[in-house]
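FORM 7B: Structural annotation worksheet

SECTION A. Query
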Amino acid sequence: MGERDGIENTITGGTFLGPVVQAREVHLHRPTAARAPRLLGPAPDVFVDRTPVFATLARASAERAVREAPLIVTVTGLPGMGKTATALRWLHQLGADFPGGHLQDDMSPQGPLRPRDPAAVLEGFVRELSHRQERAESPRPTDLDGLAAHYRSLTADAPTLVFLDNVVSAAQVRPLLPGHPGSVVVVTSRFPLTGLRASHPRALSVHLDALDEGSGAELFHAVTGRPDALDRPALEDVLRACAGLPLAVRIAGARVGELLETGEDPAELARELVDRRTRLEALTVPDDLSVAQVFDAVYDSLAEGPAELYRALGLHPTPEFSRELVRRLARAEDDVRTLVRERLLEPAGDGRLRMHGLVHDHARTAADGVEARTADRPVDRSRERYVDHYVQWYLERAAAVEWQTSDRWRYGPLFARPERLREVFAGADEALDAMEADRANVVAVAELAHTTGRHAAAWQLCEALRGFFFRRKYHADWVAVCLTGVRAAQQGDDPIAVARMHLELAFAYADRDDDTDTVEARDHYDQALTLACAIGHARTASSALEGLGLLELRAGRPQAAADHFRRAVDALEDIDHPRGRALLTFHLGRALSADRSHAEAAGLLLRARALFAALPDRFNEAKSLWHYAQARLRADRSDEALAPLNEAVTLIHTCGALKEEADILLLRGDVLATGGRQEAAEADWRAALELYVRVGGAGGESAGARAARERLS
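SECTION B. Predicted structure
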């Protein structure tokens, strides 16, 4: 043939490799490469916030090129916090860089009690990869190790994205790591997956926190489609109730949108959300989405010990508590760890734990459900037991703080046994700081005690909190607790308690010191005095007269004040009350100084200082020295003012009384400036200003702070 057509078909050189096809025309068809699997769910259509999270993820992704193993990212958070949405949002942004494909599976579709077997997930992944790559069918391994090895082989040639949603344990993840080192595996879980971090130290863990108010409003408006769906107060109520949980915000937005479409008042939903009794029900889309349903799945997976602790914490009046309190409630420490691992509890600073607001609502509902199921069995008193525990816990801690900060006389059975209180705290600073963390709790527990009929505990808590509130100046809370104390005492049959509560309320109003408060303080001092005289309770009568004298002194009537103080001394008669007599000596010295009886005033204030030192009472000893210095200044003896102020600063610094320390520093700065020591004076004024700001917090600038600023300007 070759000779006839002039074509020579020969093969020369090399090694003969097998059959050769010779033909006039040859058509070759290469099979088209199958598209890699793309199994990711759709990205969320509405997404807000998470900017810091995405910044962290972007940095981690940029390092993939230098990694020797796939990047593992664990996204953790409370159910409903948007873990899946966040993961999908990021994965879709990365998608084009992963030619090996995108794989996804739900690792616990039937809840955490029935986690998915990783072998079953591998079978699906292997089948999908084999089908897409059109490889010849051959027997596949059936054991977990064999499947994992085969899977790594299929994913070895190109980077692959793997999304494992709702992972329960690290053991579910390890077999599903792909073979190519440039791959990324994203895991969502409400569990910390500590074992995964132990086996893969370079794994990245990202925790999702609640949305802030701005992001919550953005999400709400995106879902409703109406930026004017609610007025500002109603919107704030809705967002506060949702507590930054994206699922709750989405449901609230959807429900408001539905109400608008049907012509109903959307503010009704806000009212339902404000009420804890209807909040979870309001955050429900019938037959579809429900915040309660999401938390039910978690709660139902708990063993009885953690479940009981969960219900107990639901009965606590606020969602944040001391870790020590939680431990005392738990049957075992492992129950606490379980709730933390399940994200039902989370750390809240040094020695503190908290529940998300909606989790706390759900825990209370769970406690109500148990009570309803056991209503026919009166022996079940778990609710009463836990409320008793909370009231007693906070009462004893408040009394221990009071014992550390003052040796004043108090009324009530708890104060008759001070030996129980001495070892709770090591000192006044520790005690005040501990109560600072529990401030919202003690206010709520006082109300809880009163509303549940524990009236004696409620008014004793009021009595116990005076030292803390007086030192830290939280007047709104102080007045609220005292009002509760008055109502609680009036429900009992103890007239001394009623008189004492009017006295405590008057003292709180007087310490806040505005015109309205002065009127209220006078009224309650009068009521306390009338009741105390009627029942012959000399201590309370003397204290009420003392309070009325202080109001006269503040009003610029020193002679009337001095008269009240002398009557207060007489009211004590022969009662052994050294602290009360020291205070009245101190107050009388102040009144006489204001009345310009300088020599007698100086003697009384120094006498008061000695009496307080003998108790000892460093706080009032410092105040006596401070007012002695003021008396010396009024007498034009400024050369005798600096030494007592130096002593007063040293004493007050150990008492945790920031406002009084600032007052003393302010005056010492004035004395130093008068003596020509301007640099030292300015140092005192700056220190005073810093303390005034710390005491004032968000309540606006105080008169003391303004005075310090004026001196520094």
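SECTION C. Observations
The beta strands are 71-76, 102-106, 161-165, 184-189, 204-207, 284-285, 289-290, 320-322, 346-347, 352-354. The two ends are 113 Å apart (CA to CA).

SECTION D. Sign-off
Analyst initials: ____
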